[in-house]
Design goal:
CATH architecture of the largest domain: 3-Layer(bba) Sandwich
Protein name: NAD(P)-binding protein
Bound molecules: flavin-adenine dinucleotide
Largest sheet: 9 strands, mixed
Number of strands: 17
Organism: Gordonia asplenii
Distance between the termini: 57 Å
CATH topology of the largest domain: FAD/NAD(P)-binding domain
Pfam families: NAD_binding_8, Smoa_sbd
Structural class: alpha/beta
Number of helices: 14
CATH superfamily of the largest domain: FAD/NAD(P)-binding domain
Helix content: 25-40%
Strand content: 15-25%
Length: about 450
Amino acid sequence: MSQTPQSIAIVGAGIAGATAALGLRDAGFDVTLYSDKPRAALRDEVPPTGVAVLFGRSRDFDADIIEDLYSVGNTTGISTRLYSGEGDERARVLEFNPDYNYVSQSVDVRLRADDRIGRFLDRGGKFEVTTVDVEALDGIAAGHDATFVATGKGGLASLFDVDTERTHYDEPQRRLLQVTLQGVDHTGDAFAYRNRDGAQNAIFNLDAQNGEIYLGPFLHKDVGPTWSFIVFAKPDGAWASKFDAVDDAASARAALLEIFTEFFPEDAPAVEALQNIEADPFSWLKGAVTPTVRKPVATTRGGHVVAGLGDTVISVDPVAGQGAQGALIQASELVKAAKEHAGQPFTAEWLTEQFEKYWELRGRAAVEVTRLYLGDPDYATHLELSFPAAAVNADVASALFGLLSDPNPLLTLESRDDVLGFIGAVAGEPADDVLGRFEPAGTFSSAEKVGV
Ligand SMILES: Cc1cc2nc3c(=O)[nH]c(=O)nc-3n(C[C@H](O)[C@H](O)[C@H](O)COP(=O)(O)OP(=O)(O)OC[C@H]3O[C@@H](n4cnc5c(N)ncnc54)[C@H](O)[C@@H]3O)c2cc1C
Protein backbone atom coordinates (compact mmCIF):
# COMPACT_ATOMS: atom_id res chain seq x y z
CA MET A 1 0.00 0.00 0.00
CA SER A 2 1.15 3.55 -0.77
CA GLN A 3 2.14 5.93 2.05
CA THR A 4 -1.25 7.66 2.12
CA PRO A 5 -3.93 5.01 2.31
CA GLN A 6 -6.63 5.13 -0.34
CA SER A 7 -10.00 6.29 0.89
CA ILE A 8 -13.05 4.07 0.69
CA ALA A 9 -16.67 5.03 1.37
CA ILE A 10 -19.31 2.49 2.29
CA VAL A 11 -22.93 3.58 2.40
CA GLY A 12 -25.17 1.49 4.65
CA ALA A 13 -24.16 -0.15 7.94
CA GLY A 14 -26.10 -3.42 7.78
CA ILE A 15 -24.21 -6.70 7.85
CA ALA A 16 -22.80 -6.18 4.33
CA GLY A 17 -21.54 -2.62 4.92
CA ALA A 18 -20.28 -3.24 8.46
CA THR A 19 -18.38 -6.37 7.38
CA ALA A 20 -16.76 -4.69 4.39
CA ALA A 21 -15.91 -1.62 6.49
CA LEU A 22 -14.14 -3.64 9.17
CA GLY A 23 -12.29 -5.80 6.66
CA LEU A 24 -11.15 -2.87 4.50
CA ARG A 25 -10.07 -0.89 7.55
CA ASP A 26 -8.03 -3.85 8.78
CA ALA A 27 -6.54 -4.09 5.28
CA GLY A 28 -5.16 -0.56 5.76
CA PHE A 29 -7.64 1.63 3.89
CA ASP A 30 -9.03 4.92 5.16
CA VAL A 31 -12.68 3.89 5.47
CA THR A 32 -15.80 5.96 6.15
CA LEU A 33 -19.06 4.14 6.86
CA TYR A 34 -22.17 6.23 6.14
CA SER A 35 -25.33 5.22 7.99
CA ASP A 36 -28.83 6.67 7.99
CA LYS A 37 -29.10 5.77 11.69
CA PRO A 38 -26.78 6.20 14.68
CA ARG A 39 -25.03 3.07 15.85
CA ALA A 40 -27.32 2.60 18.87
CA ALA A 41 -30.45 2.89 16.73
CA LEU A 42 -29.16 0.27 14.29
CA ARG A 43 -28.94 -2.11 17.22
CA ASP A 44 -32.01 -1.17 19.25
CA GLU A 45 -34.54 0.71 17.13
CA VAL A 46 -34.96 -1.43 14.03
CA PRO A 47 -35.92 -5.05 13.42
CA PRO A 48 -33.21 -7.38 12.13
CA THR A 49 -33.22 -7.46 8.30
CA GLY A 50 -33.60 -11.24 8.54
CA VAL A 51 -32.68 -14.20 10.71
CA ALA A 52 -29.36 -14.43 8.86
CA VAL A 53 -28.45 -17.99 9.79
CA LEU A 54 -24.95 -18.80 8.59
CA PHE A 55 -25.06 -22.36 7.29
CA GLY A 56 -21.49 -23.60 7.53
CA ARG A 57 -19.28 -22.55 4.64
CA SER A 58 -19.96 -18.80 4.82
CA ARG A 59 -18.54 -18.86 8.33
CA ASP A 60 -15.11 -19.74 6.93
CA PHE A 61 -15.14 -16.57 4.84
CA ASP A 62 -16.41 -14.55 7.77
CA ALA A 63 -13.53 -15.83 9.91
CA ASP A 64 -11.20 -13.80 7.68
CA ILE A 65 -12.98 -10.64 8.88
CA ILE A 66 -13.76 -11.27 12.54
CA GLU A 67 -13.24 -13.91 15.22
CA ASP A 68 -16.22 -16.07 16.19
CA LEU A 69 -17.81 -14.25 19.14
CA TYR A 70 -20.87 -16.43 19.70
CA SER A 71 -21.52 -19.81 21.27
CA VAL A 72 -25.35 -19.65 21.40
CA GLY A 73 -27.43 -20.38 18.30
CA ASN A 74 -25.26 -23.13 16.86
CA THR A 75 -27.02 -26.12 15.32
CA THR A 76 -25.83 -29.30 13.66
CA GLY A 77 -28.92 -30.67 11.94
CA ILE A 78 -32.51 -30.03 10.93
CA SER A 79 -35.70 -31.97 11.48
CA THR A 80 -37.71 -31.76 8.27
CA ARG A 81 -41.32 -32.72 7.64
CA LEU A 82 -43.43 -32.47 4.51
CA TYR A 83 -47.20 -32.23 4.57
CA SER A 84 -49.51 -32.17 1.57
CA GLY A 85 -53.22 -31.76 0.89
CA GLU A 86 -56.00 -30.05 2.77
CA GLY A 87 -58.70 -31.01 5.27
CA ASP A 88 -59.32 -34.76 5.47
CA GLU A 89 -56.93 -35.27 2.57
CA ARG A 90 -54.01 -33.71 4.44
CA ALA A 91 -51.16 -36.22 4.51
CA ARG A 92 -47.96 -36.54 6.53
CA VAL A 93 -45.75 -37.31 3.55
CA LEU A 94 -42.19 -37.61 4.74
CA GLU A 95 -39.80 -36.85 7.56
CA PHE A 96 -36.06 -36.83 8.02
CA ASN A 97 -33.55 -35.40 10.49
CA PRO A 98 -30.12 -35.17 8.90
CA ASP A 99 -26.89 -33.99 10.41
CA TYR A 100 -25.68 -30.99 8.46
CA ASN A 101 -22.07 -32.17 8.70
CA TYR A 102 -21.31 -28.53 9.48
CA VAL A 103 -22.20 -26.12 12.26
CA SER A 104 -24.76 -23.49 11.38
CA GLN A 105 -24.95 -20.32 13.47
CA SER A 106 -28.03 -18.19 14.08
CA VAL A 107 -27.14 -14.87 15.70
CA ASP A 108 -29.12 -11.62 15.72
CA VAL A 109 -27.82 -9.74 12.69
CA ARG A 110 -28.11 -6.46 14.62
CA LEU A 111 -25.63 -7.84 17.15
CA ARG A 112 -23.32 -9.13 14.44
CA ALA A 113 -23.31 -5.73 12.71
CA ASP A 114 -22.86 -3.84 15.97
CA ASP A 115 -19.86 -5.96 16.98
CA ARG A 116 -18.28 -5.17 13.62
CA ILE A 117 -19.00 -1.45 13.85
CA GLY A 118 -17.46 -1.40 17.35
CA ARG A 119 -14.23 -2.97 16.13
CA PHE A 120 -14.21 -0.74 13.06
CA LEU A 121 -14.42 2.37 15.25
CA ASP A 122 -11.79 1.07 17.68
CA ARG A 123 -9.41 0.60 14.77
CA GLY A 124 -9.79 4.11 13.41
CA GLY A 125 -12.76 3.75 11.08
CA LYS A 126 -15.01 6.78 10.58
CA PHE A 127 -18.79 6.57 11.03
CA GLU A 128 -21.01 9.33 9.64
CA VAL A 129 -24.72 9.50 10.31
CA THR A 130 -26.54 10.83 7.27
CA THR A 131 -29.17 9.58 4.87
CA VAL A 132 -27.33 9.45 1.59
CA ASP A 133 -29.41 10.45 -1.44
CA VAL A 134 -28.27 10.29 -5.06
CA GLU A 135 -26.84 13.79 -4.91
CA ALA A 136 -24.91 13.13 -1.72
CA LEU A 137 -23.70 9.84 -3.18
CA ASP A 138 -22.25 11.73 -6.12
CA GLY A 139 -20.27 13.92 -3.73
CA ILE A 140 -19.11 10.97 -1.67
CA ALA A 141 -18.01 9.05 -4.76
CA ALA A 142 -16.15 12.13 -6.03
CA GLY A 143 -14.26 12.38 -2.75
CA HIS A 144 -13.16 8.75 -2.34
CA ASP A 145 -11.00 6.31 -4.26
CA ALA A 146 -13.79 3.73 -4.11
CA THR A 147 -17.43 3.86 -3.02
CA PHE A 148 -19.62 0.89 -2.17
CA VAL A 149 -23.39 1.01 -1.78
CA ALA A 150 -24.71 -1.44 0.82
CA THR A 151 -28.11 0.09 1.56
CA GLY A 152 -30.09 -3.14 1.22
CA LYS A 153 -32.93 -4.00 -1.15
CA GLY A 154 -34.64 -0.62 -1.40
CA GLY A 155 -33.64 3.00 -1.96
CA LEU A 156 -30.28 3.44 -3.62
CA ALA A 157 -30.38 -0.12 -5.01
CA SER A 158 -32.43 1.25 -7.90
CA LEU A 159 -29.29 3.03 -9.14
CA PHE A 160 -28.08 -0.39 -10.23
CA ASP A 161 -29.85 -1.75 -13.31
CA VAL A 162 -31.66 -5.06 -12.95
CA ASP A 163 -29.74 -7.84 -14.68
CA THR A 164 -32.62 -9.40 -16.57
CA GLU A 165 -30.62 -12.48 -17.58
CA ARG A 166 -29.85 -13.36 -13.96
CA THR A 167 -33.22 -12.36 -12.50
CA HIS A 168 -35.92 -15.02 -12.65
CA TYR A 169 -38.92 -13.37 -11.00
CA ASP A 170 -40.70 -10.05 -11.17
CA GLU A 171 -42.72 -10.45 -7.99
CA PRO A 172 -42.24 -11.98 -4.53
CA GLN A 173 -42.60 -15.76 -4.35
CA ARG A 174 -43.45 -15.79 -0.64
CA ARG A 175 -44.89 -13.42 1.96
CA LEU A 176 -42.60 -13.45 4.97
CA LEU A 177 -43.18 -13.29 8.70
CA GLN A 178 -40.30 -13.41 11.13
CA VAL A 179 -40.61 -13.44 14.91
CA THR A 180 -38.28 -14.31 17.77
CA LEU A 181 -39.69 -15.84 20.95
CA GLN A 182 -38.28 -16.68 24.35
CA GLY A 183 -39.12 -18.78 27.39
CA VAL A 184 -37.68 -22.22 26.63
CA ASP A 185 -33.92 -22.55 27.00
CA HIS A 186 -31.65 -24.41 24.60
CA THR A 187 -30.30 -26.90 27.06
CA GLY A 188 -33.29 -29.08 27.96
CA ASP A 189 -35.56 -31.24 25.85
CA ALA A 190 -36.87 -28.39 23.73
CA PHE A 191 -38.40 -29.87 20.59
CA ALA A 192 -36.83 -33.23 21.49
CA TYR A 193 -39.92 -35.04 20.16
CA ARG A 194 -38.65 -33.88 16.74
CA ASN A 195 -34.91 -33.99 17.15
CA ARG A 196 -32.45 -36.60 18.28
CA ASP A 197 -30.29 -33.80 19.59
CA GLY A 198 -32.97 -31.51 21.00
CA ALA A 199 -31.91 -27.89 20.77
CA GLN A 200 -28.84 -28.76 18.69
CA ASN A 201 -31.17 -28.94 15.72
CA ALA A 202 -33.46 -26.63 13.79
CA ILE A 203 -36.88 -27.50 12.39
CA PHE A 204 -38.21 -27.10 8.87
CA ASN A 205 -41.85 -27.80 8.00
CA LEU A 206 -42.92 -27.81 4.36
CA ASP A 207 -46.54 -27.57 3.35
CA ALA A 208 -47.04 -28.28 -0.35
CA GLN A 209 -50.00 -25.91 -0.66
CA ASN A 210 -49.19 -23.08 1.74
CA GLY A 211 -45.44 -22.61 2.20
CA GLU A 212 -42.70 -23.40 4.68
CA ILE A 213 -41.76 -22.65 8.29
CA TYR A 214 -38.23 -22.59 9.71
CA LEU A 215 -37.58 -22.43 13.41
CA GLY A 216 -34.35 -22.74 15.28
CA PRO A 217 -32.26 -21.81 18.30
CA PHE A 218 -31.20 -18.17 18.09
CA LEU A 219 -28.93 -15.75 19.93
CA HIS A 220 -30.98 -12.61 20.54
CA LYS A 221 -28.98 -9.40 21.13
CA ASP A 222 -30.58 -8.66 24.53
CA VAL A 223 -31.99 -11.85 26.02
CA GLY A 224 -29.67 -14.46 24.56
CA PRO A 225 -30.98 -17.99 23.92
CA THR A 226 -34.30 -17.71 22.07
CA TRP A 227 -36.14 -19.28 19.13
CA SER A 228 -36.43 -17.61 15.78
CA PHE A 229 -39.26 -18.38 13.38
CA ILE A 230 -39.70 -17.58 9.71
CA VAL A 231 -42.96 -18.26 7.93
CA PHE A 232 -42.66 -18.35 4.14
CA ALA A 233 -46.25 -18.08 2.92
CA LYS A 234 -47.17 -18.79 -0.69
CA PRO A 235 -49.09 -15.71 -1.88
CA ASP A 236 -52.08 -17.82 -2.96
CA GLY A 237 -52.02 -20.19 0.04
CA ALA A 238 -54.04 -20.15 3.24
CA TRP A 239 -51.32 -18.60 5.43
CA ALA A 240 -50.63 -15.36 3.58
CA SER A 241 -53.83 -13.56 4.62
CA LYS A 242 -53.09 -14.36 8.27
CA PHE A 243 -50.28 -11.80 8.07
CA ASP A 244 -52.63 -8.95 7.17
CA ALA A 245 -53.50 -8.09 10.77
CA VAL A 246 -49.93 -8.44 12.07
CA ASP A 247 -48.66 -5.08 13.29
CA ASP A 248 -46.58 -5.88 16.38
CA ALA A 249 -44.69 -8.69 18.07
CA ALA A 250 -47.77 -10.01 19.89
CA SER A 251 -49.89 -10.22 16.74
CA ALA A 252 -46.94 -11.84 14.92
CA ARG A 253 -46.82 -14.54 17.62
CA ALA A 254 -50.62 -14.94 17.41
CA ALA A 255 -50.51 -15.46 13.62
CA LEU A 256 -47.67 -17.94 14.01
CA LEU A 257 -49.54 -19.89 16.64
CA GLU A 258 -52.68 -19.95 14.53
CA ILE A 259 -50.74 -21.48 11.64
CA PHE A 260 -49.12 -24.11 13.86
CA THR A 261 -52.42 -25.01 15.54
CA GLU A 262 -54.21 -25.47 12.24
CA PHE A 263 -51.47 -26.90 10.06
CA PHE A 264 -48.80 -28.40 12.33
CA PRO A 265 -50.71 -29.57 15.42
CA GLU A 266 -47.84 -31.85 16.42
CA ASP A 267 -45.68 -28.78 17.08
CA ALA A 268 -48.31 -26.36 18.39
CA PRO A 269 -47.93 -27.11 22.13
CA ALA A 270 -44.16 -26.57 21.91
CA VAL A 271 -44.62 -23.26 20.11
CA GLU A 272 -47.31 -22.15 22.55
CA ALA A 273 -44.77 -22.43 25.38
CA LEU A 274 -42.77 -19.59 23.81
CA GLN A 275 -43.46 -15.91 24.54
CA ASN A 276 -42.71 -12.52 23.05
CA ILE A 277 -39.54 -10.66 24.07
CA GLU A 278 -40.83 -7.67 26.01
CA ALA A 279 -37.40 -6.02 25.97
CA ASP A 280 -37.38 -5.85 22.17
CA PRO A 281 -40.50 -4.49 20.43
CA PHE A 282 -38.64 -4.96 17.11
CA SER A 283 -38.33 -8.72 17.44
CA TRP A 284 -40.59 -9.31 14.45
CA LEU A 285 -40.76 -8.42 10.76
CA LYS A 286 -43.13 -8.96 7.89
CA GLY A 287 -42.53 -8.33 4.23
CA ALA A 288 -41.60 -9.92 0.94
CA VAL A 289 -38.61 -10.02 -1.36
CA THR A 290 -38.71 -9.88 -5.14
CA PRO A 291 -35.63 -11.98 -5.94
CA THR A 292 -33.47 -9.65 -8.01
CA VAL A 293 -29.92 -9.60 -9.36
CA ARG A 294 -28.60 -6.20 -10.39
CA LYS A 295 -25.61 -5.02 -12.40
CA PRO A 296 -22.78 -4.62 -9.90
CA VAL A 297 -21.58 -1.17 -10.91
CA ALA A 298 -23.45 2.11 -11.46
CA THR A 299 -22.46 5.66 -12.29
CA THR A 300 -23.55 8.68 -10.27
CA ARG A 301 -24.93 11.87 -11.84
CA GLY A 302 -21.46 13.34 -11.94
CA GLY A 303 -20.02 10.27 -13.66
CA HIS A 304 -18.41 8.60 -10.63
CA VAL A 305 -18.35 4.85 -10.31
CA VAL A 306 -20.03 3.09 -7.36
CA ALA A 307 -20.31 -0.65 -6.69
CA GLY A 308 -23.02 -2.61 -4.89
CA LEU A 309 -22.67 -4.96 -1.93
CA GLY A 310 -25.06 -7.42 -0.25
CA ASP A 311 -28.81 -7.17 -0.82
CA THR A 312 -28.27 -4.06 -2.96
CA VAL A 313 -26.98 -6.24 -5.81
CA ILE A 314 -28.36 -9.71 -5.07
CA SER A 315 -31.55 -10.06 -3.07
CA VAL A 316 -32.98 -13.54 -2.75
CA ASP A 317 -36.03 -14.92 -1.00
CA PRO A 318 -34.72 -16.16 2.37
CA VAL A 319 -36.14 -19.69 2.00
CA ALA A 320 -32.65 -21.12 1.39
CA GLY A 321 -30.90 -18.70 3.77
CA GLN A 322 -28.51 -17.24 1.21
CA GLY A 323 -28.73 -13.44 1.63
CA ALA A 324 -26.49 -12.65 4.59
CA GLN A 325 -24.25 -15.58 3.80
CA GLY A 326 -23.68 -14.20 0.31
CA ALA A 327 -23.07 -10.70 1.66
CA LEU A 328 -20.34 -12.01 3.97
CA ILE A 329 -18.66 -14.02 1.24
CA GLN A 330 -18.82 -11.08 -1.18
CA ALA A 331 -17.37 -8.71 1.44
CA SER A 332 -14.64 -11.13 2.49
CA GLU A 333 -13.52 -11.77 -1.09
CA LEU A 334 -13.64 -8.05 -1.86
CA VAL A 335 -11.38 -7.26 1.08
CA LYS A 336 -8.75 -9.79 -0.07
CA ALA A 337 -8.85 -8.48 -3.64
CA ALA A 338 -8.70 -4.82 -2.54
CA LYS A 339 -5.69 -5.51 -0.37
CA GLU A 340 -3.85 -6.99 -3.36
CA HIS A 341 -4.97 -4.08 -5.51
CA ALA A 342 -3.99 -1.32 -3.06
CA GLY A 343 -2.44 1.75 -4.63
CA GLN A 344 -4.11 1.18 -8.00
CA PRO A 345 -7.33 2.78 -9.21
CA PHE A 346 -10.65 1.09 -8.40
CA THR A 347 -12.07 1.28 -11.90
CA ALA A 348 -15.46 0.10 -13.11
CA GLU A 349 -13.66 -2.78 -14.85
CA TRP A 350 -11.92 -3.89 -11.67
CA LEU A 351 -15.08 -3.62 -9.59
CA THR A 352 -17.10 -5.55 -12.19
CA GLU A 353 -14.40 -8.24 -12.34
CA GLN A 354 -14.60 -8.72 -8.57
CA PHE A 355 -18.37 -9.14 -8.74
CA GLU A 356 -18.09 -11.65 -11.59
CA LYS A 357 -15.64 -13.70 -9.52
CA TYR A 358 -18.09 -13.63 -6.63
CA TRP A 359 -20.96 -14.55 -8.95
CA GLU A 360 -19.05 -17.66 -10.05
CA LEU A 361 -17.90 -18.48 -6.51
CA ARG A 362 -21.31 -18.20 -4.85
CA GLY A 363 -23.82 -15.73 -6.30
CA ARG A 364 -25.14 -17.89 -9.14
CA ALA A 365 -25.42 -20.97 -6.93
CA ALA A 366 -27.15 -18.97 -4.18
CA VAL A 367 -29.78 -17.83 -6.67
CA GLU A 368 -30.29 -21.37 -7.98
CA VAL A 369 -30.54 -23.10 -4.58
CA THR A 370 -33.14 -20.50 -3.64
CA ARG A 371 -35.14 -21.46 -6.73
CA LEU A 372 -34.82 -25.14 -5.71
CA TYR A 373 -36.19 -24.46 -2.22
CA LEU A 374 -38.92 -22.22 -3.63
CA GLY A 375 -40.11 -25.20 -5.65
CA ASP A 376 -39.47 -23.43 -8.96
CA PRO A 377 -40.86 -25.52 -11.86
CA ASP A 378 -37.32 -25.71 -13.32
CA TYR A 379 -36.42 -27.84 -10.29
CA ALA A 380 -39.52 -30.08 -10.22
CA THR A 381 -37.47 -33.19 -11.02
CA HIS A 382 -34.90 -32.42 -8.35
CA LEU A 383 -37.62 -32.06 -5.72
CA GLU A 384 -39.61 -35.08 -6.83
CA LEU A 385 -36.53 -37.27 -6.43
CA SER A 386 -34.42 -35.72 -3.70
CA PHE A 387 -36.96 -35.38 -0.88
CA PRO A 388 -38.15 -39.03 -0.97
CA ALA A 389 -34.51 -40.14 -1.28
CA ALA A 390 -33.59 -37.96 1.71
CA ALA A 391 -36.40 -39.50 3.74
CA VAL A 392 -34.86 -42.96 3.44
CA ASN A 393 -31.16 -42.15 3.27
CA ALA A 394 -29.39 -39.96 5.83
CA ASP A 395 -26.50 -39.15 3.49
CA VAL A 396 -28.84 -37.85 0.79
CA ALA A 397 -30.65 -35.80 3.45
CA SER A 398 -27.35 -34.30 4.59
CA ALA A 399 -26.39 -33.56 0.99
CA LEU A 400 -29.71 -31.77 0.42
CA PHE A 401 -29.08 -29.46 3.36
CA GLY A 402 -25.38 -29.29 2.50
CA LEU A 403 -26.58 -27.09 -0.37
CA LEU A 404 -27.46 -24.35 2.13
CA SER A 405 -23.80 -24.27 3.16
CA ASP A 406 -22.34 -24.72 -0.32
CA PRO A 407 -24.94 -24.54 -3.07
CA ASN A 408 -22.46 -25.09 -5.92
CA PRO A 409 -23.02 -28.87 -6.35
CA LEU A 410 -26.56 -28.03 -7.48
CA LEU A 411 -25.17 -26.38 -10.63
CA THR A 412 -23.95 -29.75 -11.90
CA LEU A 413 -27.42 -31.34 -11.65
CA GLU A 414 -29.18 -30.37 -14.84
CA SER A 415 -31.10 -33.47 -15.91
CA ARG A 416 -33.09 -36.27 -14.26
CA ASP A 417 -30.12 -38.57 -14.87
CA ASP A 418 -27.81 -36.07 -13.13
CA VAL A 419 -30.08 -36.04 -10.07
CA LEU A 420 -30.37 -39.85 -10.03
CA GLY A 421 -26.59 -40.09 -10.42
CA PHE A 422 -26.10 -37.67 -7.52
CA ILE A 423 -28.46 -39.65 -5.27
CA GLY A 424 -26.71 -42.89 -6.22
CA ALA A 425 -23.25 -41.46 -5.61
CA VAL A 426 -24.17 -39.96 -2.24
CA ALA A 427 -26.10 -43.04 -1.07
CA GLY A 428 -23.53 -45.55 -2.35
CA GLU A 429 -26.23 -47.63 -4.05
CA PRO A 430 -28.42 -47.26 -7.15
CA ALA A 431 -30.87 -44.35 -6.86
CA ASP A 432 -33.76 -46.63 -7.87
CA ASP A 433 -33.04 -48.85 -4.86
CA VAL A 434 -33.04 -45.82 -2.57
CA LEU A 435 -36.27 -44.43 -3.99
CA GLY A 436 -37.89 -47.90 -3.97
CA ARG A 437 -37.72 -47.93 -0.19
CA PHE A 438 -39.72 -44.75 0.23
CA GLU A 439 -43.12 -45.02 1.87
CA PRO A 440 -45.28 -42.09 2.98
CA ALA A 441 -44.80 -41.32 6.68
CA GLY A 442 -48.49 -41.48 7.71
CA THR A 443 -48.07 -40.01 11.19
CA PHE A 444 -45.58 -37.73 12.95
CA SER A 445 -44.53 -37.68 16.60
CA SER A 446 -46.15 -34.90 18.60
CA ALA A 447 -45.23 -32.44 21.32
CA GLU A 448 -48.50 -33.25 23.03
CA LYS A 449 -47.34 -36.78 23.68
CA VAL A 450 -43.88 -36.10 25.04
CA GLY A 451 -43.95 -32.42 26.03
CA VAL A 452 -41.15 -29.95 25.56
C1 LIG B 1 -37.30 -13.16 7.03
C2 LIG B 1 -35.87 -13.20 6.57
C3 LIG B 1 -35.04 -14.25 6.95
C4 LIG B 1 -33.72 -14.32 6.51
N1 LIG B 1 -32.94 -15.39 6.85
C5 LIG B 1 -31.67 -15.48 6.38
C6 LIG B 1 -30.85 -16.61 6.71
O1 LIG B 1 -31.23 -17.51 7.44
N2 LIG B 1 -29.56 -16.63 6.22
C7 LIG B 1 -29.08 -15.63 5.44
O2 LIG B 1 -27.91 -15.70 5.02
N3 LIG B 1 -29.84 -14.57 5.09
C8 LIG B 1 -31.11 -14.46 5.54
N4 LIG B 1 -31.89 -13.39 5.21
C9 LIG B 1 -31.30 -12.31 4.39
C10 LIG B 1 -30.42 -11.38 5.19
O3 LIG B 1 -31.05 -10.98 6.38
C11 LIG B 1 -30.05 -10.19 4.34
O4 LIG B 1 -29.56 -10.66 3.10
C12 LIG B 1 -28.97 -9.33 4.95
O5 LIG B 1 -29.26 -9.00 6.30
C13 LIG B 1 -28.82 -8.06 4.10
O6 LIG B 1 -27.84 -7.23 4.64
P1 LIG B 1 -27.43 -5.86 3.90
O7 LIG B 1 -26.38 -5.26 4.76
O8 LIG B 1 -27.15 -6.12 2.47
O9 LIG B 1 -28.76 -4.97 3.93
P2 LIG B 1 -29.54 -4.29 5.15
O10 LIG B 1 -29.55 -5.16 6.33
O11 LIG B 1 -30.86 -3.88 4.56
O12 LIG B 1 -28.69 -3.02 5.53
C14 LIG B 1 -28.76 -1.81 4.82
C15 LIG B 1 -28.40 -0.67 5.74
O13 LIG B 1 -28.32 0.52 4.98
C16 LIG B 1 -29.02 1.54 5.66
N5 LIG B 1 -29.47 2.51 4.65
C17 LIG B 1 -30.49 2.36 3.78
N6 LIG B 1 -30.59 3.44 2.98
C18 LIG B 1 -29.61 4.28 3.36
C19 LIG B 1 -29.19 5.57 2.89
N7 LIG B 1 -29.83 6.16 1.88
N8 LIG B 1 -28.14 6.17 3.50
C20 LIG B 1 -27.48 5.56 4.52
N9 LIG B 1 -27.84 4.35 4.99
C21 LIG B 1 -28.88 3.71 4.41
C22 LIG B 1 -30.13 0.85 6.40
O14 LIG B 1 -30.62 1.57 7.51
C23 LIG B 1 -29.41 -0.43 6.84
O15 LIG B 1 -28.75 -0.21 8.07
C24 LIG B 1 -33.22 -13.30 5.66
C25 LIG B 1 -34.04 -12.24 5.27
C26 LIG B 1 -35.36 -12.18 5.71
C27 LIG B 1 -36.23 -11.04 5.28
